[in-house]
Design goal:
Helix content: over 70%
Protein name: MFS transporter
Keywords: Membrane, Transmembrane, Transmembrane helix
Pfam families: MFS_1
Transmembrane segments: 30-47, 54-74, 80-105, 117-136, 148-167, 201-223, 235-253, 265-283, 289-310, 322-342, 354-374
Oligomer: single chain
Radius of gyration: 21 Å
Structural class: mainly alpha
Domain Major facilitator superfamily (MFS) profile: 1-378
Shape: globular
Length: 393
């Protein structure tokens, strides 16, 4: 997960050097990141389906090859078009995507009673990669240049990720007998008492909604601090604090998830994320923003992994990779939509106040879907209990 995260975080580090070398505008130089995120989302679903059929080793090997080739091709790019395509197709679609949804889904299949914390530890690798890779890449960009750095990064990713993939050739034991010995497993052909497609659609919409809300602080906190007069450096520190607290949040949420299940953990995280967004409205002092940024990281970090637990608990295990990948793809689209939408609202109103309100409304949509699914689950459970009591009588 940490190795694969390099494809998500290093392009932002080399952006100034790439822009200067190719002589393009900042918006054009940002396209490699945009396309890599779109590719990451779509590729997660495709790689998840591949993992469902052949096991997680195959998509990891594909990801290792494509990530290595993508970085090397980008390093040799004669223009910004080739550089962008290398990020979108090789690094995003076929590279980094193999190390998120497939790994989370596969991890959920190996554990029962400690499934939540296992998935949380795995998912934390993504945020950890965000903390590790930028300073390493920045050091080598300053000493040997971005092209040589990309070549070295491609070789390292191919060798390390490919070697680790070979250790994961065993398929997970997904027999229902394992779940019967402990843990939560409510999987069926009618999750939440709904048709499979409708249940999947609701989770996907919930994924978009929570991440539109999540994107507002994560994408715009640096610009927000600049507008308030605190400077971009302060905003970068708040973003770093937010991501660091996100790692802690994922681990804590994993422990909570093992006790109350994925759906209730999603509801808890969504409610707390909404509270944090509300706090941004009345408080804009420097110290307050540091505290709220930390709280936002602590509240939102566990939301995304909870979707993997929900899929594992309510959907057939044989489809975990593809279904988790579909939901993760929607969360990535939500992040992209939320970042763009917040910027557009700022352009229209000249303030981030309305953008925070927009995020709160999307968060309420996520919360509403979670409550609806929980009520259906409780109703189904009560109905089943009543049937059992009637049969006993």
């Amino acid at each position: 997960m940490v190795i694969g995260a390099s494809g998500m975080y290093v392009v932002a580090v080399v952006l100034p050097a790439v822009q200067a070398e190719f002589g393009v505008a900042r918006g054009v130089a940002s396209m490699p990141y945009t396309l890599s995120m779109i590719g990451f989302g779509i590729g997660g679903m495709l790689m998840g389906k591949l993992a469902d059929r052949f096991g997680v080793m195959i998509p990891l090997l594909v990801g290792a090859v494509c990530l290595g080739l993508g970085f090397i091709l980008a390093a040799m790019a004669p223009n910004i078009i080739v550089f962008t395509l290398a990020h979108g197709l090789l690094i995003g679609l076929c590279g980094s995507s193999a190390t998120f949804s497939p790994l989370i889904a596969d991890t959920s299949l190996w554990f029962v009673r400690r499934r939540g914390i296992a998935v949380a530890v795995c998912a934390s690798g993504n945020y950890l990669g965000g903390a590790i890779w930028p300073p390493i890449v920045q050091h080598f960009v300053e000493t040997v240049g971005w092209r040589q750095t990309y070549i070295g990064l491609g070789i390292v990713c191919f060798l390390v990720m490919g070697s680790l993939a070979l250790l994961m050739r065993r398929r997970p034991p997904i027999a229902s007998k394992a779940a019967a010995r402990g843990g939560v497993d409510l999987s069926s052909e009618r999750p939440f008492g709904l048709p499979m497609g409708k249940a999947q659609l609701l989770l996907c919409v919930a994924g978009v909604a929570c991440c539109v809300a999540m994107a507002m602080p994560q994408v715009h906190i640096v610009a927000y601090c600049g507008d308030l007069g605190y400077g971009a450096a302060r905003g970068a520190q708040m973003l770093s604090l937010m991501l660091a607290c996100g790692v802690v949040s994922r681990l804590i949420s994993g422990l909570i998830c093992d006790r109350i299940g994925g759906l209730r953990t999603l509801l808890l995280g969504s409610a707390l994320q909404g509270i944090a967004l509300l706090l941004f409205l009345p408080f804009d002092g420097l110290a307050s923003l540091y505290v709220i940024s930390a709280l936002f990281g602590l509240f939102q970090g566990g939301i995304l992994p909870s979707y993997a637990i929900i899929v594992r608990e309510y959907f057939p295990a044989r489809e975990a990779g593809g279904r988790v990948g579909a939901v993760i793809m929607c969360t990535m689209l939500g992040m992209a939509l939320g970042g763009w939408m917040s910027g557009q609202i700022f352009d229209l109103t000249g303030s981030y106040h309305a953008a925070f309100l927009n995020g709160i409304l999307w968060n309420l949509l996520n919360l509403g879907i979670g409550v609806f699914l929980l009520r259906r689950t409780l109703r189904k459970h009560d109905g089943g209990s009543a049937s059992l009591q009637g049969a006993s009588a």
